[in-house]
Here is the input.
Amino acid sequence: MSRKLIFGPVLGLDAEDTYTVCFVTDSGVPEVTVKIDEKEILATEVQNLPGGGKFWRAAKKVNIPNSSKGKLIEYSVNCGDEFYTDKSGRRSWQFYVPGTDEEPRIAYTSCNGVSKSDLIAKMDDPFKLWEEMAELHLKEPFSLMLMGGDQIYADSIWDKVKALEEWSSLKISDQKKRKGSKQLSSQLDQFYSKLYTERWSEENMSFMLASAPSIMMWDDHDIFDGWGSFPEGLQQSAIFSEIFVYAKKYFELFQIRSGKNSSLLSKNEGHYSLSLKFRNYNILALDNRSERTINQVMSPQHWDDIIHCLKSVDSGNLIVMSAVPVVYRDFSFTETAFDVTPWDESLADDLKDHWRAKEHQGERSRLIMRLLENAAMRNVNSKESRTIILSGDVHVGCLGIVNDRSGEKLIKIHQVVSSGIIHPAPSLIQWLGIKAVTNDDDEPLNEERTIEASMLTPIGSKKYIRARNFVTLQKGTDGKIWVNWIVDGSKGSETGERPVYPIS
Here is the structure.
């Protein structure tokens, strides 16, 4: 006999050897077990969902093979003598655990949706890149999948939540005064629950979520477009605060896989930044939305947590997940123009989102300098000490670098941008408009001009990859970490872009 999962499973990584399985069953189930590597684990009930359904979590430490060869682990979800299938009819799943001496194969994605709900219907094959990732995974499994922001596009909230329809039509001054209601809370609860369970159930996406352990960090669209970059009166309003409560609830459930995630830097729920080690990679995911305001990206306590974490990362490679690119085009000219004109919600929040917005430049500089300091320390202690920032958000793929020539040895930070796996790239007209009001000139970061940020050109493409994409990272036989952008339209094409870049 079989039962059907309402949602899932989603496979996660909480520590180098600790894997989690999360899923949703109907609400009448008293007990569920997960069988991993022939061992039964009792799942923990985490949350009841509106409309019926229970969110479950199971965690298991897996023995890592002490060799350069890994192993495939099979798991299933069971209720007594009955087994569960997912929405695609699968009843068991596998994931790959690399050996202690094995170089893991990593995938990175962002922007897993569209800003306008009708845009999906206009796309020929919106999930095409998920299908290509699944095909690659079946040939040579990914050990880890990093998802760097906008895993869910919640912008339809203004159309789908009826209690917000009237509020959206009010003048901003009246929006700030409006209080929440039980009706709004109930509708928000249902909205975010339905959004995750429906959007993440597409066949190839759900296969990857169940088959490659993931680490996720949110960005604005996981709440709604521009979150954290609105004027203070609106950002702190009762309605915005109520929306954030439920966006946060479901982000914690589905992306963080509950507050029991052992990789979280903070246990006080102020932020969700997390850190863990996976073979020779230290992974630091920055939560740049929970505490974001128009004048702040991370709070002082959050910064203390980040700095303390970096001090403990003294060897190996470092991957930093920053949803918004740290190194990117300069929007300051456009930002200045907006500063002398009335605030416009549809445009100004996009400008204030960037690390190079004038309000955030101090924190950006602090982040870069701390990463350079950490890179110098790892350079002394470890043969491998690369620093790679993974970003998304901007709907193009690209490559940046920070070079620090202030000491005896050159210190480098590379930044890889992959965006988006579903969201379309800017049209040619849109991109020409962006280029017309921005620049990508080399940027000195200190008085002596010995530290500089620059944009690079990936091998085999233009500087900016104006097409949907995701990225793979794997160490080659030459000792370099090879970054491959898998670009929409390139598969099977002799003329399509196949951008790569070796990070040494």
About this structure: The mean pLDDT is 92. The chain is about 25% helix and 25% strand.
